[in-house]
Amino acid sequence: MTTVTTDDDHAPVLSSWRTSHRADLSAHLAHHGAPPLPAPGDRVRSDRFAHALEASGLTGRGGAAFPSAAKLRLLRSVGGAGTVVVNGMESEPASLKDRVLLTCVPHLVLDGAELTAVALGASRVVMCVAADHTDEARAVAHAVAERAGGPLAPVPVDVVSVPGGYVAGEESALAAAAGGRPGVPSFRPDKTVPLSVGRRPAIVHNAETLAHVALIARRGPDWFRSTGVPDAPGTCLVTVSGGVEHRGVYEIAMGTTLRHLVDDCRPTGAVTAVLVGGFGGAWVPATSLDTPFTPRALLEVGAIVGPGIVVVLTDETCGITETARIANYLAGESAGQCGPCVFGLPAIAADLWRLAGGGAGADTRAALERRFQVVVGRGACRHPDGAVRMAASALSVFAADAAAHAAGRPCAHWRRPSVLGPAVQQPWAGHGDFPGGRHRPHEQEVIGRWTSGSG
Amino acid sequence: MDIRIRVNPIACDAYGYCAELLPELVTLDEWGYPVTNDGLVPAHLVELARQAARDCPRRAFLVKSAERTAGGSRR
Lengths: 455, 75
Hints:
The structure holds two protein chains of two kinds. By secondary structure, chain A is α/β, with parallel strands linked by helices.
């Protein structure tokens, strides 16, 4: 079982698990009490729920940090939703939080989904779990069965196993999958038009967001705001990995500094940078570690909260090489629908790989900058934008390394296995022709166990 | 009322007819896919833009009239 560690006692989402180490319904109810589920059609209590969400300032924990109340309001303005889609896909390779949520506190997530479903008059909750995440699917299915037919399941929940992949967690892709169609992103020229499943509007929420919703409905917005900072209230699950002794999922107060988080996890060397926000996030240099973990503060250093991901890079590893590995992974994860993504991401990955291996000509850097510009904003979804944000941040954060590599000196560490987890440990797939063929790495062994944290 | 062009990137298969008709507004990237920048169409090119939309074999080239908004949203 994944170990969960917290940096203080105020970790409400994971509190029931820490107290009892049980995920079943009776332990959940003993700890949290019953959720204040309105009777279907009870407009007054649904309004109260919407107001509490509004006052709480909760933002989505899936990546976009969109205000959850605004999402609810949008759906209520079009007459509610037919389906509540829960994103438990864990599409980010460096994330483990969905695993923790779905195996340790599944009932909190289900409470949030039921509350949202009743408030929107939905007839169905679809819980999406990646097809290869069988432990999570089993845990959720068990939790659903415990509630079935009782007062805590006013709206039926289907646990759906969705073929995984990085973009499968994108909300329009997930809505498509929940409706039984192929799970690929769709072209949405107007993002204020709600997604739909079947013929009715649908709301897509990250699993963690719904866990917070369940707590806000019980304890109120003032309680929620008592943690975190005014512009980013509450707590947040963060998966810390990379060059640290204590990898794992941490529940931190929003506004905790990156330095506090990273130091608590005991870096294995001198920290050079951290990747914040996931593979489509951005590198933040060690000099900016005092940045608080909030959407606004991270934006100021070019990063995003994303789904709560921090990968620590130490001087034992080359940032440009790791960036090339991530870019290569992201290129392979394109849904294959949009030309700029299909052709642009492999080209960028190949450029980065040439740079990392010291085989870059003087024009490689210029080609990269040009391709960053040309690819951004030209996909149906934000996948290419995230890849470019990550790659562009590397050229600035690891500028000295990039310059040295461009001058023909490959990094001393560039053949080392990645600290990024198994997703990028695969042999290089066949997209893009890496012209510096001699630099093509061998199949890498996995260092560091990825499946569990410690401490 | 603004007239804007937009490409549906999923539908687009890089035929490039739009760039031939409207080089003022559409350039092609190194892989042949159209780049439209902010997509705003000056009045004298509106008819050509509509023709490009009609001629696109994939119906990926879109011409939309949009209320002028303060944010000037591109999406």
